[in-house]
Amino acid sequence: MARQWRIEYKGGIYHILSRGNQRQVIFKDDQDRETFLEVLGKASMLFSIEIYAYVLMGNHYHILLKTKKANLSKTMQWVGSTYTRRFNLRYKQNGHLFQGRFKSILVENETYLLRLSYYIHRNPLRAGMVAHLVDYEWSSYKAYAYKTANIPDWLRIDFILSKFTSKDRNCSYRLKAQNYSDEDNSIWEDVKHGFIFGSEQFINDIKTKFLKEKKEPDLTQHNRLKFDANIDKLIDHLSKLLNFNILENKITRYSSLEKKECRDIVVFLIKNQTNLSNRSIGEKINLSGSAIGSIIAHLQVKIESSKTLKRKIKTLNSQFEV
């Protein structure tokens, strides 16, 4: 199983997500939730991390945090193992509680932090667990939305609230969170390469600082990001392999089936080789993100039903060296 590429540095900001093993419940009652928050608070002190937002769901959690040291993996491993040990001891059981390694998304700055905090706090609402955000007790929402909220010593809300210039920043945050409409599909579409939430300049900085010269066999994200640095080269290579340049051939309803299939194959391979978002691919070849999604889904169905097409895709994939 490929490892997730951990980019760690002083001042790194991350959106953390971890699920229960086989999606099992990791918080059975309020005592479990209190235990987890106690562990999280202790981690903030032991590992010098700043925790900006969190939500505890039934079988997973989200955390928004900043590392003052390059120690994200060490921090989250300690959180996971410590909570698992207490959970297993309480319920007299053994084994893994969490599903593999935690997922981390590298976040650029406060602009993206605000959007993520809204997204994180709205999880219970999207899941249909409550009718109003204020009704959910196990998130940091109330700390942001109401001055009278009981705020843990380790929760850092000033950094995000400082982005509001109004007199009542809590009210401003509350209104923004309540009316936030950029939910699942849209926000994840802006996560580039599967693990970076930020501008193209931020992504280029990450490439410059952290990409290695050679391919990393078990770090798929690293290898795809390395290829993404040469997206034009990738398209050029596909053009030669298929004798079809997607930038020069506009596909219409009158185009031949052969050209349409070539277009679909190029889109599919770009997605497969780079892990660019559908929106980013669409911007490159003048299609909408939804159109890219439809093309990929349609071709995937064809691949499953056609051994010839499956072999063709496999052959094309084998010709790429990162």
Written overview of the protein:
- Strand 2 and strand 3 (60-67) form a beta hairpin.
- The protein has helices spanning 30-46, 72-91, 110-121, 123-126, 141-145, 158-161, 169-178, 184-189, 200-210, 220-228, 231-242, 257-274, 278-285, 289-305, 307-318; strands spanning 12-19, 49-56, 60-67, 103-107, 191-192, 196-197.
- The mean pLDDT is 86.
- With 322 residues, the chain is of the alpha+beta class.
- It is elongated.
- Helix content is 51%, strand content 10%.
- 30% of the residues are buried.
- It has two domains: 12-189, 2-Layer Sandwich (Alpha-Beta Plaits); 230-318, DnaA protein, C-terminal DNA-binding domain (Chromosomal Replication Initiator Protein Dnaa, Chain: A), CATH 1.10.1750.
- Helix 12 packs across helix 14 (289-305).
- Strands 2-3-1-4-6-5 form a six-stranded mixed sheet, sandwiched between helices.
- It has 15 helices and six strands.
